[in-house]
Structure formats: C-alpha cells, structure tokens
Amino acid sequence: MDLELCVQTRKLMWDALPEEAALVEQEPATHVGPFKSARSTDAVHTRDGHRWLNRLLGVNETVIELIYSQSICIAAQQLLGGTLRQAVVDGQPMGSHGSAWPGGPTDPALGNEGARGVYCTLPYGQVTRKRDTCHTDGHPFQLGIVGLIHDTPADGGAFKVWPRSHARLFHTYALRYDQPRIPFYGHLPKFKGLVHTPEYLREIDQLNIDTQAVECCGSAGDVVFWHHRTAHMAGHNYSDVLRQAVLADFWTTELDDLRSRPVTDDMWSDWSEVVQSSNGAFTNEFAVMQGLGASKQFQNVRVETKHAR
C-alpha cells in the first residue's frame, strides 16, 4: 500500500479520537490498554477493552484509495475473475444497521459499501499470555484483505491465520458463502447470531489443537490476502506498539448468484481460470519470504494438490 496514504490514514484515526481519551499519539506509554476513558461500544466507532475499531473510516476517500488501490484491485481481479464490486466513498459504513450479530443488535457486516474500517489493538501491558483460538466470518464475501498501516512486530497483535483451514472448513458449512443466522429480538435475547453445523464446530476445535497459527506481522504497507473461509483471529498484542491495520473485503458482482451453489461443488470453481489452472506449488524461498519457513509443515513443499491451496 502507498506509505503516504498509510500516514494519512493513521492521522484520520487519531483525529477521530475524542479529546478526553488518555491515548496520545506521540506518547507510546499512553497506548497501553484497556481503554480507561472515552470508551464506546458504538458499532461504527468502538473503543472498548483493548480494541479500537473505526468503521466510519471504511468509506473515507483516503482509506478507499489506500486499500482499493489499482495494484491491489489488479491482484484481487486476477484471483477472483468476474467483475469486482466498487467501494462507495461516503457510502454506508460497516456497522450502520441490521440485526443478528452475536453481541446484538447490530450486524457490522450488513450493507457495507466500503472497507471494514481501521482496526487497532492496544498493547496488553503486563498480562498472562492467552491461548490463540480461531474463528471464521459469517457474512458473504470472497477475498479478505488486511493491510498494515504501521509497522507491526511479532507478538504485536497482527492478523493470524490457520494454514489450510479454508480447505478443511469449506465443506462443513451449510451454505457456500453465508452462514445461517437467528435474528436478534429484544424480547427474545437468548438465541441470536450465527448457526454452525456440528461438523464445523468439530473442525474448528481440531484446528485449535493440531494447527499452529501463522502471524502476519510486518511493515507499514504490507498486505495479506486471505480466502473467505480461512480460520483466523486478531492476534494478542504483547508488544509495546499499537497495532494498526485497515481491513477490507472483495467480492464480484456474481456473488449473489454464487451464494446459491452447494458446498459440495469444487471450492475453486467460482474463482478465476488462473487460480483454477494453478497446481498450488510454491518454493521454500517463497515460504521463508512469507514467514512460513519456521513451521515444519511448510518445509520442502514443492507441489500442493488443488484443494490444499
């Protein structure tokens, strides 16, 4: 991503912080969480615990130019084929309306016309380390993007993925792109949110046991592309650096039709011919460059089957 736009996006984030907040951009010691002042559980600008999420910035012109740049869109187009949907400057941000989100009553994925927004994780300070646990996203999209707008060190709250989880999970879903939801009703609050199949729940539990997450730390401007069924999490931030990233989804105008296809079909048949013709091979050198070299499961990988991309 463009580094100057990364700087501008960071400024937009800090400018949106209420004056009464204890965090001061140029004073890293104040960045350690949790939030003690200026807390908010508003779905479009959340400041709670160690999480600082500004979804209003997802439709900001600068942020859209940053994460939907020509180079990123070309890469997404090569992967997905079809016609990419277009982000709308000053459109409807994520978290504006909707029901059935597990925390209720707002579903932050419904009606989003831009990026997901700018997501930050405050340093945890001196705390006992927590166990990594993965999840997947229930709203329909095809390709996820996480772009670092500031340097993110190891153990610094970076996006984490469970390798090959998309291939293991894909056929455990009831629907190809969506997940069924129980609507939220204020007078019936007990049951709400996503509905998972028993097969999915078993596979998620197994992934947490047998697969080591890969931490996508890096420098400002680095971008992670991830398959929509990849198990992931926002990493725990044990560093002294505020984790700052912009998140976005890509999908094609064909997605509305593709949603009705069964999960029994080839998981790659919706993607571009370039992807479908690939054998998924990668070299050891590429694995090292992508931070995969430390894991034994990626050593000496030369050829992968189609379903292990």
The end-to-end span amounts to 24 Å
Total count of helical runs of at least 4 residues: 8
Q: Helix share of residues? A: 10-25%
Number of strands: 11
How much strand content do the residues show?
Answer: 5-15%
Largest sheet: 6 strands, antiparallel
Could you name the CATH class of the largest domain?
A: Mainly Beta
* Secondary-structure element string: HEEHHEEEHEEHEEEEHHH
CATH architecture annotation name of the largest domain = Sandwich
CATH fold group of the largest domain: Jelly Rolls
Strand order of the largest sheet: 1-2-3-11-4-9
What keywords describe this structure?
8 helices; globular; 309 residues; 11 strands; Jelly Rolls; alpha+beta; six-stranded antiparallel sheet; 14% strand; 2 domains; single chain; three-stranded antiparallel sheet
Task: Write up this protein.
- The protein is α+β, with helices and mostly antiparallel strands and 309 residues long.
- The chain folds into 2 domains: 3-269, Jelly Rolls (Sandwich), CATH 2.60.120; 278-309, no CATH class.
- The protein contains 8 helices and 11 strands.
- The chain is globular, with a radius of gyration of 19 Å.
